[in-house]
Amino acid sequence: MEKHVVVIYPHPDDESFGAAGSVSKFREQGVPVTYLCGTLGEMGRNMGSPAFANRESLPEIRKKELINACNVLDMDLKMLGYRDKTLEFEDRGEVAEHLKQILEEIQPSLVITHYPDHAVHPDHNALGAAAIEAVRLMDSEKRPVVWTQAISNNYLEVLGKPDIINDITDYFEKKMEAIFCHASQAAGVLGQFKQADKLESEVQEEIKRRFSTEHFYTWNFEE
Question: Which domains does the chain have, with CATH numbers?
Fold first, then answer.
């Protein structure tokens, strides 16, 4: 059993779409989980239709959504305070050192983050790379295992099959509850599954197939 799990993603909702099922399983086992959230997603484009947010109000709305999702998942939250869509321009060494200090304080046995260069969004790639660097800088005897999540279209072709495939069917409802806490974002993301020629039941089944497993690659620090 893990001692403590730390999840490191850049945006509110990354944790729910990416790892909510795994987090729920860890919490059921009594394992503490902490989410280090990089930004408040304040540059997000989804503001509702009709709009219920604007550029000024969106950060506070997404912060509340994030807190609600973490409450649903029963995990601790630390907000890192970086600005949305700027992580790629931050000094990676400084971000890594920031993360390293937090990790050395928490002393997790497992870190979950994005797989650099296979996570689509520049913020995902940048924070994933900084998280891996933070763990690399730690004393090798105290270094946690790192699970990295790839979401690019070609990751299977390039990286091969993930070595961690978590069936989270038993936690699917909890995952969806966490996702829907992020009301400003959920409809936009889930809307991609809705096509004119699909029945509602088919859409629900496709969403269930898509979100009933969570895949990760264990990072190899020896290479």
Answer: 5-218 (3.40.50.10320)
Cα 35 from chain centroid (whole Å) = 9
- Quote the CA–CA distance of 144 and 126 in Å, as a whole number: 20
pTM passes above 0.85 = yes
State the angle between helix axes of 58-73 and 172-181 in degrees (0 to 180), rounded to the nearest 10: 160
Hey, which residues does 147 pair with through a beta bridge? 112, 218
Per-residue pLDDT tens, the chain, 223 aa: give them: 999 999 999 999 999 999 999 999 999 999 999 999 999 988 765 555 545 565 567 889 899 999 999 999 999 999 999 999 999 999 999 999 999 999 999 999 999 999 999 999 999 999 999 999 999 999 999 999 999 999 999 999 999 999 999 999 999 999 999 998 998 888 767 656 555 455 567 767 877 888 899 999 999 998 7
